[in-house]
Write a structure and sequence with these properties.
The protein is an alpha+beta fold. It contains three helices and five strands, in the order ααβββββα. The radius of gyration is 30 Å and the shape is elongated.
Length: about 170
């Protein structure tokens, strides 16, 4: 009598599943790497633009010193190259200061949770952290009662647009 299992427990993925998994993983990494490269490129552009005034001043100073005979042309060029190399080396150490920071101002409120302190029908008030804000529901004519948790979806002046947190989770 031969033993034949009734079910097959596969612990090792098939070659196709392994390839698909590896491809999906590489695509996800590629997307995040593209976002990082875009941020790095913008940071580098910002750094270069902000170095232009200092480099221009040094170039004019070296040109003036050369014109008045205080400095030889070769030394002026060497000093200008040195200044540029200094900027290139310093970028590595000061890059973090030029990176975009987290959102601030009213933009930072979007996505945060709030608690209704005055029912929103059509306009009420919500508490976001320690602050009270005027609020209107995203859906016109909707009433949101006191004590309900809401999510901020937009900021229009001094009024936030909110919707129930339970509605957002249900999507």
């Amino acid at each position: 009598m031969r033993f034949e299992p009734r079910f097959c427990l596969r612990l090792v993925p098939t070659p196709i599943e392994a390839r698909l998994s590896a491809f999906t993983e590489s695509m996800n990494q590629t997307a995040s790497q593209k976002a990082d490269r875009k941020t790095d490129r913008k940071t580098l552009q910002k750094y270069i633009v902000l170095q232009i005034p200092g480099t221009t001043m040094v170039a004019f100073l070296l040109a003036a010193l050369y014109y008045f005979g205080t400095l030889s042309g070769g030394l002026a060029i060497l000093l200008m190259i040195g200044w540029s190399v200094k900027d290139a080396v310093m970028y590595r150490f000061v890059r973090k200061a030029y990176e975009p920071g987290p959102p601030h101002g009213t933009e930072a409120l979007i996505g945060s949770q709030a608690i209704v302190v005055e029912s929103c029908e059509p306009e009420g008030r919500v508490r976001i952290g320690a602050e009270h804000w005027s609020a209107t529901p995203v859906r016109e004519g909707e009433a949101i009662d006191v004590g309900e948790r809401v999510l901020v979806t937009a900021v229009e002046g001094y009024t936030v647009r909110v919707e129930r947190a339970s509605d957002v989770r249900g999507r």
